[in-house]
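User: ok so my PI wants both of these folded by tonight, can you help

Assistant: No problem, let's get them done. Here's the first:
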Amino acid sequence: MSEVLQNPPFSFRYDGVPSSTLLPAWTKTTATANQPDGRTRRTITWTAPDGLEVRWIGDEYPGFTTLSWTVYFTHKGTAQSKQLSDVLAMDVSVTSMPDTDWVLRTALGSSQTKNDFTPIDLPLPVSAYRVFSTAGGRPTDGRFMKPPAAGDWSYLTGPAGAPGYLQQDQHSTAAAGATARFIFSGTSVSWIGPKNVDCGIAAVWIDGVKVGTVDLYAGSWLKQQTLFTSAQLPEATHVLEIVATGRKNANATGTIIAVDGFTFQATGGVTVNDPLSDITYNTNAQGNSLWEFATEDEHSSFFQDSQHYYQDNQHRSTVAGAEASWTFTGNSVTWVGPKNLDCGIADVYLDGVKVATVDLYATTWLKQQTLWTSGALTSGQHTLRVVNTGTKNASAIGTFVTIDAFIYTSSLPVTVDDTAAAITYAGAWNANPSGGSQGYINSTQHSSSAASASATLTFQGTGITWVTARNVDCGIADVFLDNVKVATVDLYATTWLKQQDVWTSATLSNTTHTLKIVNTGTKNAAGSGTVVPIDAFRYSTAGVVTTYNDTDGAIEYLSAPNSRTAVANGWPFWNLDMVGCGLICALGWPGQWGAQVQRTSPTEVRWTGGMVSKDGDELQHGQQLAAMDLADLWLAPNEAIRTALIVMQPWNGGTAAAAQNQWRRWMLQYHVPRAANSTGPAQPLAPTQANDYFPGQHDTAQDEIAWMNSYGSQQTTQGTGGVQDWWWIDAGWYQNSPNAPTDTWEWTGTWTPDPTRFPHGLKPVTDRARQLGMKSIIWYEPERVMPGTFIHNNYLSYTLEDVPDAQQIPYKRQWGGVARLFNFGDPAALSWASGYFNNSINTQGVDLYREDFNINPLPFWNKADPAGRRGITQARYVDGHLAFWTALQAAHPGMLIDTCASGGRRLDILTLGQSINLLRSDTIRQATANQAHLAGLTPWVPLHGGAVRAIAQYDDDYNLRSGMGPVFHLAVAALEPTVPWNTVRASLAEWAAIKQYYLQDFHLLTPHSVSDDRWMVWQFGTAAAGFLQAFRRPSSGAAAQVVQLRGLTGTRTYRLTDTRTGMVWTTTGSALAAGLRLTLPNPTLASTITYQGL
C-alpha cells in the first residue's frame, strides 16, 4: 500500500480550498507506535492556522497487505471554524494496474428477501464508473437495488437484421461491459455468433473465472460461427458470461459482439422454465393467447399467485383446448406444476399419442409438483403437448391447468451390472454368492478375497463410478484408469453398506477408457477379511447436444456500466478483480454512505467515498458521488467529528475467490470482536429460544423456564451434555404502552419487563438458563421511540422527530409518522442511555446484548441539521452510537453485541469491529434462503447466523443442514409431543463436530443461486481438515453433482466421511481437486462430508 501512503488517502475542502493545496502548507506531525495485537499504527496530524486539526490514523497488519484508516477533524480554535465541505474519507488513486478486463465484485445488501447478499459482478471498462449507496441511513439496506436492464443490447430479427442466423434473429451490443449470461447444466458449452469487420473483442467467463478472450474480427461476414468452446467441465450447473470489452482488432471498424445461441452438452436433468421461447402457447381465432403469464413481480396482478414457483413465474389457463407444446431432444421428460382446489384435468400427448390424463386437484396448494413423467424414451426428438380438457374433479372449484416448467434428460448414466459380459474378471471370483446379494443392484454381485484378482471394464464416456458394498470383512483395492493407478479404496465399514459409490472419476475426455479394480490382498486394521465385491459400474455418456436460441429465457442480457452508474446495492464492500491481481476495499459507516469507483485510464482506478446526506434511490443515472450531498458544515470550538473507517487489501496472484479468504483471515485475526477471556475471535454459537421466532407478548417467565427445561430434559443444552449454549429472548418481553395496539412487540421505548408476565423481571429466566449451561441473549431496540413509552414520556428532548407527513414521500413513510429517533449524538442523551441500559443489562442478567434497528434514521438526521451544517447530526449520531456500545462493553468486559437492523441492514466494517451478527436477514426458516444467504455473506463476514426449526417433517435433515453456519440457531415447539428430539440431537452433534471449520477458509463450489432447481455445495476448512455440505434443492432433477475441492494438498491422502450415509473412504487431494461426484438420490436431501488429511 506504499502508493496509498505517498499522498493523503482522503480529501476535503476548507473554506472552499481543496485539501491537496492546504495540507502541504499546514503544520504536520507524525508518530508511529506498535499496538498490543501486533499492528503498526501511524498517526499524521495537520493543524491549520485557525486551529482546525486533521488527524489521520492508519494501521498496517503483519502478515497481511491490509491498510485501514480513519480521519478525525477537531476544531481547537476559539471561534467557529470555516466551512468544512466535500469530505471524503477515501480518495485514493491506484496506478500501474494491468490493462485487462476488470470486474468489480460486490453484493446486494439485506432487504428481507431470499436475494439478500446475492453476489453482483460489474464489469469496469476504461472510463466507466459506478456510484454506490444505501437506503434510509442503514448501511447495508439493499431494498432500492434494481436489476440491471438490457438497454445496451439490440434485438435484430428477420432478413434485414439477422439473415442466415439461427431462427433469423440475434442479440448484439457495442457497449463495453454489456454481458450475456447463460446458466446451464452440462459438461461443455459453446457460444454461437457471427464474425465481421465491425466486430470487437469479448471476454469469456465460466463460473466467475475468466477462461478466454475472443476476437470476432473477420474480413467478411461469417455467420453461425462457433466462437468459443469450453474445456471439459464437471457434470454440474455452470454460469457462462460473454462480456463486451469495448476493444477491437486494429483492423476492425467497430466493437460489436453478438449472441446467436449457445450449445451445450446436457448430461443430467435440464429444467426449462415456462417462458422459454421454444414452448408454444396456443391462441384463439382472434390471435389472443389462451394462457395468462404470471410472475412474482410487484407490478404483476398475480404477485401472490407465483411465489415459490420455479423462477417465480407460471403460465396458466382455465380454457378448454388451451395447449402448451414443446419439442425437445432427449430421452425423458417431466412436467412440473402446481395442484390446488381450483385446478382441473389435463391430457398429455407425446409425439402425437395421448399418454396420460392428469387430475390436478388437491385440497391444499402444492407447488413445483411432478405432475407427469415419461420414463425412459428413445433418445431423439420428441414433442410434448399438455392440453386443458376443460373438465375437473368433482371436488374441485376450477379448471386451471398450469405450466411451471419442464425437465428433460438428454442422456442418462449407463449402469453396467456385475454380470454383464463387458466386465472381464481375472483370478478367483465368487459370482452371486448364495444369500449374499439381497439389496444389491439386480440382486447380484461378484466378490473375491484373492490378492491380484481383478475386474476390468472398457467404456466410452466422460465419467465413471464404481458401485459396490462395504462391510467389516471387506479389504482394500487399487483402482487403475487407462493403466494408471489413480486410487486405493478401503472398503471396510462397521456395518454392511450396499450400493455405495466408492470411487468416481468425473472429468474424463469423451473417448474410450479402461477401468480396472485389483484386490491388494490387504485390509484395514479393524477389518476381518479381504473381500472386494463388484456390484456395478456406472458411466456417463457425452449426452445430446442442446442448443438455446438467443431469445431463450435461460439467457440474460445485462447492461454495461455506463448504462447504469447509480447502484443502490447497500453493500459497502468491493473486490476489484483485474485478473490475477486486485484490490479489496470496505467502507465502514453505520449511516448513509456513498462511494464511487472509476477506471480513469486503462491502468488506473480512483476510489472515493464517505458520509452523504442523500438517499440511495435519489441518485440519478449519470450523476457522480458529488451529487449525493457530501458533508458541508462548520465546527464549534472543541467540537470533533470522524469519518468512515476505510480498509484496503490488495492482492496479487490467484483468484478473486482466493483473495476473499485472505480477507476472512484478516477479519478473524484483527477485526472480529474478541471472545470473553480470550485473545481470539468470538466463536461459533448455538442459540435456541422460545417456541417461535416472535413469542410476542404472550409468554411468561414460567413459559420461558418450562421451554428451556424441556431442552434440558432432552439433553440438548450445554449444561446437560448437549450443544446449545445460549437462550435467546427476542422482542416483546417489555412493558407495553397504553398507546400501543394490543399484543405487539413494536411499541418500543419502555425497557422494563412486563410486570404481569415477568413479575420478578427476566433474571429468574436468565438464571435458569445459566443453570442449564446457557448464557442469555436479550433483544433491545433503543433507537426507535414510540408514543406513550417511558422514554417518550420522560426524555422526549433526547429524541429527534421525523419529516412532517406533508413532506413525506409516501413509500418512505414509516411507523405511521409517530415514531421518534433517540439522539445518540446528544452528549446528555448518550450519557443517560449508557447508564440506563447498563443498569438493565445488570438487573436482567443479560450476557449478550442484541440490538435491533427497525427505522430509517436518515430523514430524522437531515431534518435536525441546522442551516449551513449539512451532515452534522448524522456524524454526531454515528459517533455517539458507537460510544454507547463502547460504554456497554466497558461496563461488561467480554460481552458480545449482536447487530441486527431488520435483519442484516447494519453490517458495515466499522460496526463489525464491535459486534457480531446473529440474524443476517428477516427472511428466515427457508432452506433455499438460508443456503443463499450463507453463500453470499460468508466471503465478507465470518460470523453470522440465520434461523431454522425442526418440525418433524420428512425434510427436517435438509432444513437443519441448510440452517447450519457459524451461528446455528435451532429451536423447536419445545412442549409439543411431536418434537423430533433425536433429529435435533443428531443435528446439533453434527454441527458441533464441524463448527471449528466455519472460522477457516470458505469455498463456494457451485454457482450462487436462489433457484430451487439447483444444487448448492460449499467447503469450509484448510488443507489439513474441513468439511463440505451439499444440498439438492426441491426442484433439482439432477441426482448427482461433481465438485472440485480447493485448497488441498495434491499428494496427501484424505479420509472422507459422509454423515448422511455413514460411508467412509480415502482418496488423494489431487483426485478431490479433479472432481468429487456427490449423489443425493432425491430432492430436499443434503449431506455433510468431512475430510481429514492423513
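One down. Here's the second:
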Amino acid sequence: MAAVDPPPDEPLNIAGRLTRYFIDSKITILIVVVAILAGIIALRTTPRTENPQIVVPAANIIVTKPGASPREIKNLVVDPLQAILRGMRGIHHTYGLALNSMGVVTVKFQVGENRVASLVRLYNKIMSNMNRMPPGTEQPVIQPLDVNQVPIVTISLSSATMSGVRLRAIATNVLHHLRRVPGTSRSYLIGGQRRQINVVLHPRLMRHYDVTLDDVRRVVQATNVEIPSGHFTNHNRRATIHAGTMLRSARDVGQVVVSLYNHRPVYLHDVATVTDGAGRIKTVHEIGFGPAYSHTRPHNIEVPEVTIAIAKRAGTNAVAVADAVLHKLRALQGPVIPNGVHVNVTRDDGERANSAVNTLIEHLFIAVATVVVLLVVFLGWRAAAIVTVTIPLILFVTLAVDDMGGQTINRITLFALILSLGLLVDDSIVVIENIFRHYARAGADRVRETVLAVNEIGRPTNLATLSVIVAFLPMLYVTGMMGPYMAPIPKNVPIAMITSLFIAYTVAPWAARMWLKGRGDALHDRPGLLQRGYARAMRALLSRPWMRRGFLFAIILLFAGVLAMPVLRIVNFKMLPRNNNNSFDITVRTRAGSTLEDTNRVITALGNIVRANRYVTTYDLSTGAMGAINFSGLLRGETLKRGPTVGEVQVHLVRKSERPVSSIAIVRSLRPAVDRLIARTGAMIKIVQHPPGPPVRATIMAEVFGPNYHKVQVIANDLRYGLFAHTPHLAGVDSTVPHPSMQYIIKVNRREAALHGVSAAQVTQTLKGFLSGISDGTAHIPHAKEPVPIRFRVPIADHVGPNDLGKLFVTNPEGREIPLSALVRVIKRPAPEPIYQKDGRDVEYVTAGMSMGSPVYPVLHMWQYLKHHTVDGVHLTQDFMKDPSSLHYGLRWSGEMRLTLNVFRDLGSAFGVAILLIYVILVGYYRSFVIPIIVMGSIPLTIIGVFPGHAVLGQYFTATSMIGVIALAGIVVRNSLLLIDFILDYRRAGHALTEAVVQAGTVRLRPIMLTALAIMLGTAIMVMDPVFGGLAISLIFGTLASTVLTLFVIPLGYFAYATFSERRGQPPQIH
C-alpha cells in the first residue's frame, strides 16, 4: 500500500485515513463481494409482507352471568373488570360492553408492548381477582386479538348441488390437510352446516305416551355413557374393561328407551323424528360470480360456500406460507375435493405482498436507472459507472442489516430505500466530483490526489450525512400505530446513509483510481454556461444592495403567500389518501328484531348491485355472521358481531394492474344504488375500503360522554340524525344507540310452582327446549372431524307463541303434567339496551365514513357548529386530545381525525427535535451561533416548493408529505453546509469576501444541482403511490425550490453576516 503524506499544515481526517487505507487494499474487493452476497441472501430469506407488522396486543374478556340485565352486568361485571385492569402497566384503553347475561371488556395495550408478556399479565391479573366477581358469574373467557389471527389465505369451496353438511365435511377434510403446512397457525371454517343428530320432538305423541322433554334428556344423558371400569385378569393375561354404550349414530339415538307405556318400552323414535343431518340455519354463506370471473361459472347466480381461512405463524414469510398452502390445495383437488366442488382463492395476502414488493423493487430499479442516466449525462460514463456500482452495494447492505434485525421486506422498507436513493448517491457524487477536480491537475499523483480530494470534503460530508441522519431519527418516537408503520423509514435511511458514507470513502476512491485512466476522464474545471450565468447573477446581487434587498423581500412575500395556501384551502390536509385495492367490504346491520330472512334479502340485493359492475370477479355473501376477518375488521371489533341482524358482502375485483378504474371510483359508482337500498329497507349499510395505513374504528367518530347515560343516548341520537346527517360528504352515518325493540318476559309464579312441586329451572329448560332447542351431549361417530351434537327441538309448525303456553307441560315429582300457563305469566316490555363504556366511563359513539374528500374539514365544520349551538338543550364541551370532564356532557372527536392530529403532532415534534439537533451539531462544528442559523435558512425555503407542488398536482398534504418535509431538512442543510464550507475555504486561501462567495457557489453548483436532480428523479416514481405520493411531491418540489433558492439565499445570508461583522470590527472566524 502506497504511503501518502498529508499536507504539512493539516493531518488527514477520518475520511482521508479511510481512503488511504482502502484505496489499494485487497480488503476493498472483499467488501464488494460480501455486500453483494449478503444482499442476495437477504432478498431470498427475509420475510415479505405488504406492510410492516404492527404489534398491538389486545384481548376480549367475555364474562357471562345468566339472567342478568345490562345494568347489572355493567355494575357487577364490567365496572369491576375495568377497575381491576386500570392499574395494569401498558394498557392504553379499555372498552366495555354490557349486554343481557354477558359482559365484554376489550383491552387494548400500548403499541409495541410485548404480546406474550401482555397477555400473561392480563390472564394473571384476571385470575387473581376472581373473588371480586359476583356469585353466579362463569369463568372469564380471554380471547387474544392478534394480527396473526387474520387469515392470509381464504379458500372458497362452493357447490350448487351439494348439501351444506356435505360441503362442510369436504372443507373440514381439506382443512385437516392444510393445517399440516409449515408456518400456518390459526385456521378455521366459515359457512356450511355442521353435522348433528336432530331429535325433532312431537308434542302430541309425547303427551300420548306421557313423556316430557326432561324425561327424554335425562334418559339420553344416562344412556350415552362409556367409561373405563377396571380390568379382567384371566390365564395370566390382563384385559381392560369399558362399561356403557356410546350413541354412535342417529339409529342408536332413536333406539333409546325413554319410557314405558302399558308395560311396553317407548323408544325415542316413537315420540320424535331422529335424523343425521344439518341443524336449523342460523347463518347463510354464499359466493357470487361477477362479470370479470375468468373460470366457468355455475348456473346459479349465488351458490352456498364454505370458506377455509388460514393464518400464518408470527415471524414467518407470508409469501412462502401462502405459496405452500396453495400448492397443497392443488394437490388435494381430485383426491380430497371432488369434481363437483368449485375452488376459488378469495384472499391471497402472500401474492399481494409479493406483488407489492416486486412492484416496488421494479420501481427501485427504474429509479436507479434514472439516476444512472443522469450521472452519465453529467459525469461521463466512467464516473457514472463508479457511482452506479455503489448504489446496489448500499442497498444490499441495508437489506442485510434489516434481515439480521428481524425486519421484513415490505412496502415501507422499499419506499425508505427509494427515498434514500437520492441521498445515498450524494456522498459518492461529492467524492467523485472532488476527485475529478484534483485529477485535472497536470502530472498529479493519483493516489495522493485521491486521498487529498476525499480528505478535503470529509468533514463537511460527515457533518452533512450526520444532519440527514438526525433529521430522521426523531421519527422513531412517533406514537400510536403510525409509529411502527413508518418505523422502516427512520431505521433504514440512517443505515443507508452510514453505509453510503463508508462506501464513498472506500469503494468509490478505489474504483476511481482503477477506472479513471487519464485526464480526459475528469470533468473540466472551465465553468460552463450555467456556472457563468450563476456567477454573473451572484455578482450583480452582491454589488447592488437594492437588488439584494428586493430579492430577499420577494422571497419573504413568496413564503408568506405559500403559508396562506392551507388557510385558503388551496392545499388540504388529510392523514393518508385512499388506496386502490383489489377488494372492499360492505357491512350490513338491519333493524332490531329483524329475522335472518329479512337480513338475507338485503344481502342478496347488495349482491345484485355489485354483480352489475364489470370489474367484479367474485363476492362473498354472509348473513348472520361476518366473513373472513381482516386487520381493520379485527380492530373494529367485528369478531363479536353475530346474530340475525348482521351481514357482510366481501367484493373481489380484477387486479388493479389489469383495470383502468380504481377501487375508489368503483365504490363511488355503487353508492347511489346502495343509498336507494338503505332508503327502501332502513338497514345500516356501510362500504368499507381497506385503508392504506393503520386502520381506525371509523373515519369520523364522536365519543359522547356525560353524567346521565340516558341523556347521552339522546344526545348521540340527535347528533346522528341532525348534525351528522346534514353535513356534506358524510356517508354511513351510524351510532351505537340501538333502535327500540320489544321483548317478552315469562315470569315464574313461585307460589304456584311450589304448590305443584315444579322448580323454576324446569320451567326455563322446558321453554328453551321447545322454543330454540337444546343440545345434550354428542354422538361418538368414528372419523368425524368436528363434534356431532345431539340436539332436541320441536318442529317449526309446533312452535308456540306467548298465548300458547298451555300447550307445553312439565312433570312434577308425582308424575303429573302441569301446563306452563298455570305456572307463569307473560309480560311484554321494551328490551334493555346495551351499555357502552370506555376507560370506565359510559359512552355512546356516533360514526360516519366519507363519500369523498378529507374528514378533517367536515369535523372542523361540526366542531365550529357545536361551539355556537346546543344539542337537546345541552352545550357540549369538545376535545380532540383528551376525554371531556366527567361532570359535564362532552364530546371527544376520534377516528381518523384523532389519528391525523396525533401523527402531525408527533411529526411536528420530530421536525422540531431534528432542527434542534442539527443546530447543536452545526454550532459545535462552526463554533458560532449565527452561521448555523444561516446554514439552516434553507429549511423554510422548502415550503415554497412543497405547498405549491401539492396544489398543482391536486394532492392532499398527508402524513407522508410531512415526512418529506422532515427529510428535506437534512437534504437542504447538506447543500448549505457545503456552500458555507467552501466559502470559508476560499476565505482561508486569501480570497476577498465577494470572490469567495461567488467562487464557492460556482464550484458547488454542479454537484448541488446533480444531487437535487438525483433526488427528484429518483423519487418521481413514487408520485402516483397512494401512500407515499405526498412524500415524493414534497421531495421533488421542495428540493427544486430550495436548491434554486439556496444557491442564492445562503451565500447572500453569509455575505450580509460577514459584512455586518466586519463593520462592527468583529470579522467572523474562518478557521
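The chain has six domains: 1-45+390-526, 58-145, 148-194+281-352+580-690, 195-229+243-278+742-830, 527-570+928-1071, 716-739+834-895. Residues 1029-1063 form the longest helix (35 residues). Good luck tonight!
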